[in-house]
Amino acid sequence: MRRTLLGLLMAVGLLAAVAVPAAAITNGEPDDGRHPFVGLMVADDADGNPLWRCSGTMLSETVFLTAGHCTEAPAARATIWFAEDVEATPDFGTPAGYPFEGDVDGTTFTHPDYDPAAFYLYDLGVVVLDEPVYMDEYGALPELGVLDSIKGNNKKGALTAVGYGLQEINPVRVTGERDRLVATLDVLNTQGVFGVPKGTSVAVSGSGVGGDNSGSGGTCFGDSGGPQFLAGTNTVVAVTSFGLNGNCAGTGGGYRVDQADDLGWLATFLD
Fold first, then answer.
1. Per residue in 18-51, pLDDT tens?
2. Which residues pair with 202 in a beta bridge?
3. Helix (H) or strand (E) segment spanning residue 107
4. β partners of residue 205
């Protein structure tokens, strides 16, 4: 699920996602094992009914970072997959597979100041796993205010987005498979973007740097909650949060993780 400030496709429900192929970052390239700690998440209500899907990052063996609009009520639980190609996973599409049974389950938590009516202000959520998932490495939290140090020519290709969202959406076609893909992003602005208060969001755009990312896309529905890493690192400086149109074209927004309230709240889970 990915939000738009225009109100277009505000909630991509799971039933619609199953009926229409859903998949990965627009104009991205295969992850090829670079980010095995990034997973596909399906939120469930208290009765176990699937609600919507998002992406996210393991920060430790039990803490999965995502967006607040991915964990908000009525979500109470979540199921997570770490396969790079979820559709190729055995039993996909059966009662034993997606969207019901994944690699691990957990309980959802949302930033205490999150408000669905202004989701972009505190768009942060976590899933605390029922059982630990041990990996060789995990995503890392950033230093305070690190995004503000990205200036000038350093903005080009400064971030790497990873997720399982749509590859393409337009009035005649929706394209994708539930694959983990990577896209290179330019940082456009960190200072009060789109009328959102300073320090809350980062404006990003698809970059022409690296791979076959043509610069016409970036993140899309289903990438919500997925990491926006500092390029070349596993440091999560933002989570994919919203876009400005329903076609996932051009500029999008990430919710900044490098702020004191966010780092403090996440520390309560990691401690």
1. 222 222 355 578 889 999 999 999 999 999 999 9
2. 254
3. strand 104-110
4. 186, 251
C-alpha span between 71 and 41 (Å, rounded): 10
**Residues contacting 215, CB < 8 A, separation 6+:** 27, 205, 206, 207, 208
The share of the chain scoring above pLDDT 70, in percent, equals: 73
Query: What 3-state DSSP class applies to 192?
Result: coil
DSSP-derived secondary structure letter, 214: -
Question: Closest by alpha carbon to 257, among 240, 232, 233, 244?
Answer: 240
Give the max Cα distance, the chain.
51
Out of 1.10.8.100, 2.40.10.10, 2.60.120.1440, 1.20.58.100, select the CATH number for domain 146-258.
Answer: 2.40.10.10
* pLDDT at position 128 over 60: yes
Q: What pLDDT was estimated at residue 233? A: 97
pTM value? 0.84
Q: Cα–Cα distances in Å, from 51 out to 13, 72, 178, 269?
A: 6, 11, 16, 24
Tell the CATH superfamily of the 13-19+35-139+261-270 domain. Trypsin-like serine proteases (2.40.10.10)
Of 110, 124, 99, 103, the closest CA to residue 12 belongs to 99
CB burial of residue 186 (10 Å; 0-12, 13-18, 19+): buried
In angstroms, the Cα distances linking 55 to 94, 149, 167, 186 are 21, 26, 14, 20
Comparing 11-25, 55-69, 87-101, 112-126, the range with the smallest average pLDDT is 11-25
Task: Report the candidate in 207, 232, 228, 227 with the shortest Cα–Cα distance to residue 217.
Answer: 207
